[in-house]
Amino acid sequence: MVASSAVKFDLESIFVDLSQSKNGVNKHVNVNPKLTSTVTGVRTWGTLPIEAYQNGKPAWLDDKGELIQGIFVNMPDSEYHAIKSCLSSSCLKKFAFDPQKGYDYFLGKKETKEQSPQLKRSMTAGHLIHGHVLEPWLSNYGVKTTQEIEELEKAGFKVLENHDALKKVMQDHDLKGGNKKISEKLHLVQQEVDKSYIYYPDYIESVKDNAGSRFLERSDFEQAKKAAALFVNSSLFARNYKRGGYNELTIIAFDDKTGMWLKARIDRVDDKYRMLDLKTIHTLSEAQVRRDIDDKLYAIQGAFYKRVAELASFELRDMFALTFIEWDECVRYANAYITDRSWERTKIFEQEIYEDFVDWHRTTENKDSLNYSGEMMMDLSFYKLSRRPRVGS
């Protein structure tokens, strides 16, 4: 599918010092990496994974801020997403059916469309589960939630549950609130009675504001953690996620043929060098799993990972699987393997999308539709109408 960038090694660099990464998960990390060059002059750390930080500096960037090809462990999620002018699977999936939207994503333009509360909830829960399964040494993966009143009181705060509780404290201490705002009343109580008083509704809003999109209600937060814990203690986890391999493996590679930099962040490469991606799902059923893989282009994501790995000369098994976790009302999980036939077709589609993106990127004219301009003949399937129940007389 892709031509690899051949790497020129000196003899000493072949005999690398391998050891386990400091986080205890990623195995076979080159602890004495050396910068070399590909035959086309691209600087590279070679074909073995290395720590993302070397001597305290980002190993994926040189002193001028230019990218270096390599395979990295322990790169923070935020740093990966901050890498600009680099094609990713997220970009390619957006581009597949909306080229301008995908290219805007590539250019770093933020989407203006607000996510629905349901989508935010689902994505944040998935992010939390992701962290607890793949990078458990990171504290809740940046997801925030509120503490219960009892927990705040144990921490030394005096919690006013609602406006009535605030008014009662003012009455008990003969404080005149009148028509003051709640914030002014609270400030008065803190000044005249005890500065440790907090107003619980304000506390909840402040946590939400500070967390931004990474906020979960307490019940959802606990349920997501429970789902992650149950999965981590399962035989499925032991077989696929516990034995060696790499978690959150980042690959940055240069495509000599297209002149483009590509990046991939693979959830899991197991001890047999198989790629797995961790997904949350609303209902774990065969039909829903198939629908999610099709609609959300998850298989395209895997084919792109394989492309980037080949460019970096990092050998992975020619296959892709996804672990789906249902977390909400009940906890269930299963692995879904892409069949060989579907995988081969996926790679063909991914190649087409990649070629289209490169063409779009190279062309300077403004294009706002996949078809440039023209007419289309639509042969309808009538999928929805054919399932409409008829009304009996």
Automatic annotation (TrEMBL):
**InterPro entries linked to this entry:** PDDEXK-like_dom_sf
The superkingdom listed in its UniProt entry is Bacteria
Its protein name is PD-(D/E)XK nuclease-like domain-containing protein
Q: Which organism is it from?
A: Vibrio parahaemolyticus
* Lineage of origin: Bacteria, Pseudomonadati, Pseudomonadota, Gammaproteobacteria, Vibrionales
